[in-house]
Amino acid sequence: MASARDEWVAASSRFAAIWQVGKVPAHLLEGPPAHLDVEASDSVSLDVQAIVRCAQRVSGGRTALILCGSRLRTRECPDLLGYADRRARVVVLSTSAMQSDQDPELLLARLRNVLAHEQGHLDGRSHCRTAGCVMRPVSEAAYLDARPLVPCERCRRPRFRRAVALAAAAAALALAVLLFDGVASRLVGPAFEMPFT
Ligand SMILES: [Zn+2]
Ligand SMILES: [Zn+2]
After folding, report:
1. Which ligand is closest to the CA of 127, given by its number?
2. Whole-model pTM above 0.85?
């Protein structure tokens, strides 16, 4: 069985660049650390959009993964586990938001889970309410331990197939209405004709 570390390395190595912001546990990174030039503090949460803009300036359009030692926030959300910007092709994960209590295996497993979720956003998936789905949002790091790494059946279906299924359902409904209309008019008899038209 693959270790949490192997799985983490396999998932994170799909990104063309990996940078860190602030202090990040060394076992997460292969080779010497590459810092992204964002002013970081371990006590204050950072605006994730500022990190994305900074990454975008240096990534040259490549996919980039940013590991941040601080907590993350957006204007709408005061505390984030991770964040994906599909247009910028940037994913940001907060290592301190994982609440792993210095347990390196737990940290790897939780980061791997959030990465799978954010990767889903990069692939165009949105949030899902199904319990057994990686795209289900969680409010606390501990919930990550029960969230699967893969999307549910519905989220796995390619987008155009979902659109085709929707169109087919609409067409079936329209046909049903027409048929019902036809049957109804036969039962009721021909439409009443106005005598003076
Ligand atoms: Zn999400
Ligand atoms: Zn789903």
Report:
1. 1
2. no
